[in-house]
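Table S2 (continued). Query chain:
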Amino acid sequence: MTSQTIDVVDDLTGLRPGAPLDAVRRRRPVTRDQLQASFEALFSPVDDSEFPVAERALVAAFATRVTTDDETSAAYADRARRADPERAEAVLEEASAAATAGPFGAYVEAGLQGESTDGARYEPGPATRDLLGDRLAAALAHAHLLTARPREASAPALDRLLDAGWSIDGIVTLSQLVSFLAFQQRVAAGLRVLASSATPTTEEVSA
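Corresponding output:
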């Protein structure tokens, strides 16, 4: 990461150079740089033909808002509005309506079925599909699955994406994006808590 690059986690948390928490983060440069590199690879890719950057912004706005309405979800909402203003508002409305505490879902493994839990599921309606298109609507449904019901991810779920026009490479990147966002959102939330409390120690934060 160059000195000119804005560290996205610092930006999401309002962390400024010289702050005590900034010093802690800089003691783990590999983790810090890997998180930033993942963000840049996902949102500034060399080739986005299988999953355009504008669609990535819309999925990111949905996935982070479904989880919680915080500074991270607000930042991705802004990114989505810049990338695709018309569809962004519809995506954000869908996300707010589909928000859930999760994760939950059904175990199929013997001995674990008793730990299964249930919760809200998300399926885009006909009007949403007409507005967003089958491809993006399928991506939002898959993002909700991975975020809220990851244990239920299965081959039929991938088939739905293929049927909606997604390529294998696009599906891989979509899954990587949702996984990255979940981790980044948790890291940013944890850092905000630490920043508002006593000065952290190196052991208190791993990001």
